[in-house]
Design brief:
alpha+beta; five-stranded mixed sheet; two-stranded antiparallel ribbon; 2 helices; about 20% helix; globular
Amino acid sequence: FFFFFLMIRRPPRSTHCISSAASDVYKRQVITFTSKDPVWSRKNHSYVLDFKGKVAKASVKNFVLVEKGSNKECVIFGKIDDNLYSLTVMSPFSLFQAFALAISSVAFKIGCE
């Protein structure tokens, strides 16, 4: 069995109105996401990713999904303990979308560790 801790951050509410024309343009906008690239750590002599203290164990299943161009972190998924994972979800992802990504990461990489 796998257990997930879910953290959801909602974007701040907007007080201004969007015209219907601008709303149609927004609906057709395509947003591209990519995995965050690890950086070389001289201390550890390996590549590392910053999970903001939400991940405790190294795993091939860990990932940080960022919006391409802005580096805004939208989904953070990582291993806390054996069979225990953390999932942090931020806008524009829904909880369902992020959970599907997390499940596919666990299911796809079953024999990798």
